[in-house]
Amino acid sequence: MHTPVMKMFGLEAPIFAFSHCRDVVAAVSRSGGMGTLGTSHFTADQLELELKWLDQHCDGKPYGVDVLFPSKQPKEFENLTPETVNEYLPNEHREFVKALLRKYDVPELSKEQSDEMMREYMSDLTRTHREAEKRLEVVYRHPLARMIVSALGTPPPHVIERAHSLGLKVAGLIGHPKHAKNQAEAGVDIIVAQGWEAAGHTGELSTLVLVPEVVDLVSPVPVLAAGGIGNGRQLAAALALGAQGAWTGTVWLGTAESEVSPEVKKKLFAATSSDTLRSRCGTGKPARRLRSAWVEAWEAEDAPKALRMPLQSMLVNEALERIVRFRSDALLSYPAGQVVGQLREETTVRQVVYDMLSELSNTMDRLNNAVEN
Ligand SMILES: Cc1cc2nc3c(=O)[nH]c(=O)nc-3n(C[C@H](O)[C@H](O)[C@H](O)COP(=O)(O)O)c2cc1C
Do 31 and 166 share a structural domain? Predict the structure, then answer.
């Protein structure tokens, strides 16, 4: 099988993988799919090191890079500093976070540790177009980086033009048909249509409904289906809906290569498909993650309303770090989609790709036979 998108990048498998972990990205690209690195956690300098590593570990195969271009980004947040951000964080919200961590006996960081964290993450957390473009300047220096994926909004026209002039493809990740239309009209080369089953920021339409609608709407622009794809039957379904490949995230969390800690992996393997929920508690925008006491407290009726992006991340960043650092099992959560219920034990990236492709092939045979009989 070779869909036009696979030909675009010379792939052997119609499998695209999102990960914040370079080991997963490289292993997927080496296995015939295309790994894409999430860059939102890296400064430009850190990203340079990550991409240098990828250049050396992808065996010459292409990889992608995912950046966030939030569509609604008030100018006032561009110059936030650790000192000024507190003016935007209401007391009620800060007290809510403090009380929650106290309830679960999560130790505090020292003032120095806390200040250092805030300085380190400030540029990352502001999520401005300026920061995204700084990262892209790094990406443009790495010839194996063949695709930029823009999430949360359409990349500005000059970014699409520049990427095209350097021979890169641009993909837009969307959760609603109207956003797909905007991205296609802006000139992106691929649309990633992501249903609400997915991990991370999601809209409210299921993959089964969203993908065919988007395929028809943006044709001839190719579409990848995302959300709820973790095995070969789901991959076959994505292709049947008119997608040219699957864009996946959750399924890689259970691999040996993934960045996920043993504590989170244990939770992932124990989770059922009902153990995730969409919550604004992480970033201010609805995102699907594993259920935990942290997420449920934010979803409770008496909880304060999550702040808008990027303030919510700034409010909770240190709390999340403390939860991880001090291993607070009850509060620990992680972005995960509904296919988390399919993850049972640790595997490898190569095995996931192999299993998906062989089940895809069996499924296609089964469907052909069913039609013939
Ligand atoms: C741990 C994790 C973090 C994610 N963070 C981002 C992100 O920063 N940017 C982004 O575009 N997508 C992000 N996603 C969503 C993926 O790009 C992808 O659309 C989604 O995982 C596909 O659905 P699935 O989880 O059902 O496979 C994340 C996914 C996971 C699993």
Answer: yes
CATH of the domain at 152: 3.20.20.70
Q: What is the DSSP letter of 342?
A: G
Ligand 1, residue 260: give the atom nearest the CA.
1
Closest ligand 1 atom number to CA of residue 251 = 27
Indicate whether 336 belongs to any domain. no
Show the tokens assigned to 191: 């649309």
Pair (84, 24) in one structural domain: no
What is the percent of the chain with per-residue pLDDT over 70, rounded to a whole number?
A: 96
For the record, the structure tokens of 73 come out as 């980004």
Please tell me the predicted confidence (pLDDT) of residue 130. 74
Least confident of 28-32, 69-73, 202-206, 363-367: 69-73
Closest CA to 147 of 124, 171, 176: 171
* Helix (H/G/I), strand (E/B), else coil: 225: strand
Which string of b and e fits 128-147 if b means at least 16 CB within 10 Å?
bbebbbbbbebbeebebbbb
Domain region containing 158:
4-73+127-255+351-368
Instruction: Identify how many contiguous H helices and E strands the chain contains and give both numbers.
Output: 15, 11
Kindly list the protein residues whose Cβ atom lies closer than 6 A to any atom of ligand 1.
18, 38, 40, 66, 151, 173, 194, 197-200, 226-229, 247-251, 253, 335, 337, 339
Convert the pLDDT of each residue in 237-276 to its tens digit: 999 999 999 999 999 999 999 999 999 999 999 999 999 9
**pLDDT reported for residue 251:** 98
Count other C-beta atoms under 10 Å from residue 348's C-beta: 15
**In sequence order, what are the residues at sequence separation of 6 or more whose Cβ sits closer than 8 angstroms to the Cβ of residue 57?**
22, 26, 30
pLDDT at 242: 98
| Chain centroid, CA 334 distance in Å | 12
Q: Between these two residues, 117 and 56, which has the higher pLDDT value?
A: 56
**Average pLDDT over every residue of 140-154:** 93
Nearest to 264 by CA among 221, 124, 255: 255
The H or E element that residue 17 is part of is strand 15-19
Q: What is the whole-number distance in angstroms between the Cα of residue 152 and the centre of ligand 1? A: 12
